[in-house]
Amino acid sequence: VILVPDTEFVGRLEDRRLLTGKGHFVDDMIVDKMAYMGFVRSPYAHATVRSIDLSKLKTHDSCIASLTGEDLTKENLAPVSQNPWPPQKRAIRYQLAVGKVRFVGEPVVAILSKDKNALEDLIEEVKVEYEPLPTVTTLEESKQGKAILYQDWKDNLSMSSEIKQGDVDGTISRATYVINFKEGIGRQESAPIEPHGVLVSYDEEKGSFEVHAAVQSVHGLQGNLSSELRIPKEKIHVITLDVGGGFGSKGAQSYPEPVVACLFARKTGLSIKWTATRTEDLEEAASGRDEYCDLTLACDSNGKIVALRAMVECDAGVGGTQNHMSGLSLATMLGPYGIPNRDLRVAVYVTNKMPLGPVRGAGAPEGCFFIERAMDVMARKIGLDPMEFRRRNLLQGSDKDSEDYGALFDILINASGYEDLLRWKQDLLSKFRRQESNVIGGVGISVRGLIGSPFGQGSGASGATSRQASSWRRDGVSAGESSQTSGQQRSTGAWTRNTRDNEASQELSFMSESAKITVRKGGKVIVYTGSSPHGQGEETTFAQLTSEELHVPPENVTVVWGDTALIPRGIGTFGSRSGATGGSAVVDAARKLNAKILQIASESLGVVPSSIILSDGISVCNSTEPYKVLLTLDELLQKMGINEISAESVFTLQGMSYSSGVHLCVLTLDVDLCSVKIAKYLVVEDPGRVINKTIVDGQLEGGVVHGIGGSLFERVEYDKAGKLLTTNFASYAIPTALDTPDITIIHSDHPSSISLDGSKGVGESGTIASYGAVMNALNDALRQINDRSQCNIAPALPSLIHATLTS
Amino acid sequence: MVVNGELREGAVEPRTLLVYFIRDILRLTGTHVGCDTGHCGACTVLMNGKAVKSCLVLAVRARNRSIATVEGLAKGEKLHPIQEAFSKNHGLQCGFCTPGLLMSSLFLLQRIPDPTEEEIRRAIAGNICRCTGYVNVVKSIQAAAEAMQLERQTNSERV
């Protein structure tokens, strides 16, 4: 175990502009001939659109144009893009509702205004007549088929999948200890603080669009626009500037607004700006989780797990986008434990709610929570300490890169003062029993385990699939591969984009990223990456990697991203993949560049390449000490009559490179108020080789707090009629500084052998394990008051805690 | 109104919010809009020295008053100690909520030069940050408080 010492952090290269108000976010742009776009959105969860009256718009000078769903049908558009992975039934959804609306917030009419203030007046002037239809707002209603959401479907089941191994029923019937209970995580938002937005211009002569957007993937948006507008992607130039967070919601899925903005731009010749209001973002930007699990776990008399049965149901909202993350839940659910017999199933149902999509962790937090909560429930049943019970069931020697979880537990026990915590809890309980206090304590742990392949066959880069499949980190767990899947589309395309005519998607997979490095006269180095940072600090870390490889100061390195003209191929930043995939591509390109320069120099100098090395700011030197500069970069470039040298890489990881870790949460529960205060939070993490410790820790801390939010505060609420109740940040409660603890991160770093830079994905790791830690700690507190009742549905809002205590 | 020490004028519709006057008319785009309902705090500026959410203030209400925005913090190339501390302590990730947090921090440290952690957390409870989990934000403000105290000490010794 290597403990990483604190190295001095001097700030990031991106910090100065962001701290001085000179960041460049899409809504900051005001250009000539600009008009503001807004939407009339459905107030009904399910209704037929009877009529739309736009006559009053004409009385306003500020109104430039409007579009309805009917107008769109004349535009030769494809429906909103739906990703082929994971396999799910096809649901046709148009950018503006045609005939029916299926969730509150669905765009019905688009309006273009000369003036920003007037836009809201115009929206109010549109009269839409709806005829309400029966709504499907719960899993039960969807399963019963209270209404069928899509006419060509026979029911509301969008997808089902299963992973099976061994004789589960027989093993459970013979087991010594069996637990069965229901658990779940409610619907949670990504909720980046910057709302979605675009600014689109059209060049009539070239027939091309320039699209500025707040997204996690410019190539993703380019692909969606290309397929929906039915024009070649070369005609669509997508640029992203600074982006104010994404957390999944600005990632792969397609939204209607950019397409509608393109239509307005083409029709009017104006630049079209749209900035979502917070309510629009909360109504429409993909939310996540909303998965519920009926779980049975069985152990033998030695406390060894013998079987797991899990029936997961997911309330996916409307179909028609990329929204089913449940396969990842199954792939995560075995954790790091040896579970010989298993029957894991998932069924995904559509409802009249906003579409589900990836939210930080994208299915993995649910799977991790389901097993980690069960580990605690079983440990209590057997009468074992939860940590000891986990130790007994750790999978041995499953993967050479993965951390020895036993060692992680040891570090956790020492660092947390685990024994003292148990005494602290006892003291609080004694005071509570003597009625000196209304507060009790709880301690919970959770393990961020290994992950099986969620993507299955055919999802990798062409040719790489079979090798990938053999090196997935988990033994034979592959929701796509070993599963029976219903749904019209099989998992055949690339994960990245849905379009067959999008070349980039055929070449690059979820596990790939592009990089190009150029050195110019004077030693200026430019790194072009297909990753798309929006807070992850890749301007700094990719400059660090380049600096290491080329021996130049990081300040000489400029990292460029988010521009489809400068970077023709790329995937983007999501899924905890940029450090490992994007970083590997940067290292690969830098090494290629190094070799290329030495090759050119060796020819120029008439020496063998092995006799020279690059040192001292890309100077060509003798390879024997003392290094003597034979040729500076500028001299070399001059000699060759060129201004710059470049090398490119498209790097594909041959397997998964994700971090592992153990979380511990210590909290107090005020029994009278049913409120929870997290006193202490500790993470022991193996993030692989650490490029920048402060940035890694920042990712983990933010991730943990996203999970604390989903465990205790954040729940998207709809009423019985499907009306969204959480339409602003008062009703949808994101944790504030008062709700969150200090978080201690301890490293136990083992470099990845899969990524070239040795790093492992860490962006979602903090979130994935946190639900289990918080909910286990809470239940540890609750059982001291009432040991017959548990709180197994996150978020544990005070009302739910009260119900648990009094049941 | 006086914005960052400069007299600025503009004609607006009565319903124009201060944040849009600052962003769209004065073109000081460091002040952000994250929620338009006063909850997220990305639009926080100082009005007559007090932190306000500029999406909850009509521009006309700021007439004849002084406004401080994030653009006024640095002196030329030299960052304000709060900005310096946020960078050195990784108190920002995407940077969208950061201008609001910086202004709330300034308001706090002008009132309480040596705040406790509880006072810091209370002072920024109206600023939502989705990236950092607040751990490094709190550290940044603690470091800024120390730096500003040291600066004051050095200045007074010089006098």
How would you summarize the topology of this molecule?
The complex is a heterodimer of chains A (807) and B (159).
Chain A: H1 15-19, E1 34-41, E2 47-53, E3 63-68, H2 69-72, E4 100-101, E5 107-113, H3 116-125, E6 127-132, H4 139-144, E7 157-165, H5 168-174, E8 177-189, E9 197-203, E10 208-213, H6 218-229, E11 236-239, H7 256-268, E12 271-275, H8 278-284, E13 287-299, E14 305-315, H9 326-332, E15 341-349, H10 364-382, H11 386-392, H12 405-416, H13 418-433, E16 439-448, H14 465-470, H15 503-507, E17 512-520, E18 524-529, H16 538-550, E19 557-560, H17 578-605, E20 612-615, E21 619-622, E22 629-631, H18 633-640, E23 644-652, E24 660-670, E25 675-686, H19 693-713, E26 743-747, H20 765-785, E27 793-794, H21 798-806
Parallel strand pairs in A: 1-12, 8-27, 10-11, 14-15, 18-19, 25-26
Antiparallel strand pairs in A: 1-5, 2-4, 2-6, 3-5, 7-15, 8-13, 9-10, 9-12, 13-14, 16-24, 17-18, 17-23, 20-21, 21-22, 24-25
Chain B: E1 2-3, E2 6-7, H1 18-25, E3 44-47, E4 50-53, E5 66-68, H2 81-88, H3 98-111, H4 117-123, H5 135-158
Parallel strand pairs in B: 1-5
Antiparallel strand pairs in B: 1-2, 3-4, 3-5
Helix pairs in contact in B: 2-5
